[in-house]
Design brief:
Number of strands: 3
Shape: globular
Structural class: mainly alpha
Helix content: over 70%
Strand content: under 5%
Order of helices and strands: EHHEHHHEHHHHH
Distance between the termini: 70 Å
Radius of gyration: 21 Å
Largest sheet: 3 strands, mixed
Amino acid sequence: MNGANHSVVSEFVLLGLSNSWEIQLLLFFFSCLFYMSSMMANLLIMVTVTSDPYLHSPMYFLLANLSVIDMIFCSIAAPKMICDLFRKQKVISFGGCVAQIFFSHAVGGTEMVLLIAMAFDRYVAICKPLHYLTIMSPRMCVLILVVAWTTGLIHSSAQLAFVVNLPFCGPNVVDSFYCDIPRIIKLACTDTHKLEVMVTANSGFISLGAFFLLLLSYIFLLATLQKHPSGGSAKALSTLSAHVIVVVLFFGPLIFFYMWPSPATHLDKFLAIFDAVLTPFLNPVIYTFRNREMKMAMRRVFSQTMGFRKNH
């Protein structure tokens, strides 16, 4: 790029999801439904874990923080996508685009570490039950949270460094409903082949490595439970299976986005919607419906709330 050492593109045009009015209407309805449901379901888990003393344990502490992360994550791209559905010109400023990239990677990196911590929590509970409360102490839980957010912010800052100094001087059309690094890099007025390889290594291989590490750890835990069945093995199996489903839902789209060389546009967009709106909704649903303690705690919180209203 000759002489262009700064960006002259002040905004990006998002092509969105579809030009069909019927499909846009359908997307608007389902996106609103799942976004609001996701926010309410995750908020309910946070309130339940915070207010019910029976859930003041490391596992539920981590689960409540996963709900916080899901609420933030689904608020990064979904509200703008919903607002843009019926707009002819879907535009996002350069700063807004950078912000979407930063927060999505910061929250995504944090959730990745948190899911690994939740797997470690289950390992300690199943393999070292007598030392569980000593190892998973309140101090350890807070440390896990600090490490998760620090890792997410460092990862996001490293990813952002790839984009911020790129020269954007011409094409500014993004074939998606939100900004992400693989699509934005392609619009730069310079050779970005090496940069794309670095992004794949940073996000793709980290996601793939963490995914297989988590799957192997859960396979090991499931095998351990089958070898040494106990009174609580059915409950532990249910919890582990919920964790495995959440891990697959989280890592599946990520691995596809960063490891697939030339993804099909329609599949890419479908997975992007799934990742942005559906996954944050499915996480609390999976953990709630497969967890008897959580369901009982929600009933207690609901009963207390209704009783308080009647008395006042």
